[in-house]
């Protein structure tokens, strides 16, 4: 089948493209940035363009059997308007192009940010949607658009992944890995006793691949996360031990840190967004029973295994890393955290 992927040059788009090509599918991608992957050259139809432009979205959707909408502005974008422009308006344009082109199914990559900061765990798909910050709100609106287009005959599947990690995942994780490599103290909000579920990108890709043609998931929303995870302290200590680092965890009182990070965010001096600092010290894990049942899917890697494998990739490639940016495939500007880094 022909699978079209918006945001194809991003972290998930890249890994998904590799998997689909290996499975024998035809793949077309659309992104503002180049794929920049020699292994995919000649195997993927690469389009350069913007999901917010109808002409570009039509080029992506033309003749496709399934469209995976992975294009998104991340939480660290500077304004609500910038986030909504991509995450909501871009979704509307892309879904419209899919309907016009007769695409059979759209798979929307959403986020567990749509659940906000719930008190009950594990979080299930039918729990209330109360997104944190502009990013979480935009993802809720994108889901509603997806459901609305489903009423127009487009099979719609919504995937809500936990924070996913793996080779080529930089962003905020590059900061963590950099500090562990240097043996610095690692600040954590609270005492680290909260359980915070992550997800290996290869496990997410496996779930996404199964969503392409599984009849039973049409019209469904699915949580996807690691099956095995400990507390924040346990998982980070496992990573530090694996790295052979002198780093130690340094608990920071959560409420004062939240206020300070909020001020830095408003001043555009922090690489952390509201979604990061409001959830980092709280339990955050979802039920994956529905994905297990409907997709016969089982995540392979635990939090700790995923972090360790990604750290090893980082060590092998750190000299190749490019300048700071606003995607998961490049480092994020450490800005105000530079002072904390010097004191750690």
CA(first)-CA(last) distance: 51 Å
- pLDDT average, as an integer? 89
Radius of gyration from CA coordinates: 19 Å
* Sheet with the most strands, sense and barrel status: 7 strands, parallel
Strand line-up in the sheet with most strands: 3-2-1-4-5-6-10
User: Into which percentage range does the β-strand content fall?
Assistant: 5-15%
Which keywords apply here?
single chain, 344 residues, alpha/beta, two-stranded parallel ribbon, 11 strands, 41% helix, 14% strand, globular, disordered C terminus
Structure commentary:
It is built from twelve helices and eleven strands. With 344 residues, the protein is α/β, with parallel strands linked by helices. The strands form three sheets. A seven-stranded parallel sheet has the order 3-2-1-4-5-6-10, with helices on both faces. A two-stranded parallel ribbon has the order 7-9. Strands 8-11 form a two-stranded parallel ribbon. Helix 2 packs across helix 3, helix 3 packs parallel to helix 4 and helix 7 packs parallel to helix 11. The radius of gyration is 19 Å and the shape is globular. The C terminus is likely disordered.
């Amino acid at each position: 089948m022909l699978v079209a992927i918006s945001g194809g040059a991003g972290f998930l788009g890249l890994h998904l493209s590799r998997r689909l090509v290996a499975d024998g599918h035809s793949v077309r991608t659309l992104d503002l940035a180049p794929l920049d992957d020699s292994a995919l050259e000649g195997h993927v139809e690469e389009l350069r363009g913007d999901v917010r432009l109808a002409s570009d979205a039509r080029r992506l959707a033309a003749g496709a059997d399934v469209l995976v909408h992975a294009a998104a502005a991340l939480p660290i974008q500077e304004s609500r308007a910038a986030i909504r422009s991509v995450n909501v308006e871009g979704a509307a344009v892309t879904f419209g192009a899919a309907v016009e082109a007769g695409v059979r199914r759209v798979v929307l990559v959403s986020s567990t940010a749509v659940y906000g900061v719930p008190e009950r765990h594990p979080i299930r798909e039918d729990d209330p949607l109360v997104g944190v910050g502009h990013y979480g709100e935009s993802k809720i609106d994108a889901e509603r658009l997806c459901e609305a287009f489903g009423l127009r005959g487009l099979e719609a599947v919504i995937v809500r992944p936990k924070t996913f990690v793996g080779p080529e995942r930089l962003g905020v994780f590059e900061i963590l890995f950099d500090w562990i490599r240097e043996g610095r103290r690692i600040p954590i909000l609270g005492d680290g006793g909260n359980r915070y579920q992550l997800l290996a990108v290869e496990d997410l890709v496996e779930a996404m691949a199964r969503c392409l043609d599984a009849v039973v998931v049409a019209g469904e929303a699915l949580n996807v996360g690691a099956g095995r995870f400990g507390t924040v302290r346990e998982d980070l200590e496992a990573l530090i031990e694996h790295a052979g680092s002198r780093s130690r965890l340094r608990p920071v009182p959560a409420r004062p840190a939240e206020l300070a990070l909020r001020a830095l965010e408003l001043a555009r001096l922090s690489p952390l967004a509201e979604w990061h600092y409001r959830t980092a010290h709280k339990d955050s894990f979802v039920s994956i029973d529905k994905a297990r049942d409907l997709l016969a899917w089982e995540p392979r890697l635990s939090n700790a295994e995923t972090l360790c494998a990604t750290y090893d990739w980082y060590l092998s490639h750190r000299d190749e890393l490019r300048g700071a940016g606003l995607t998961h495939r490049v480092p994020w500007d450490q800005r105000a955290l530079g002072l904390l880094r010097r004191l750690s």
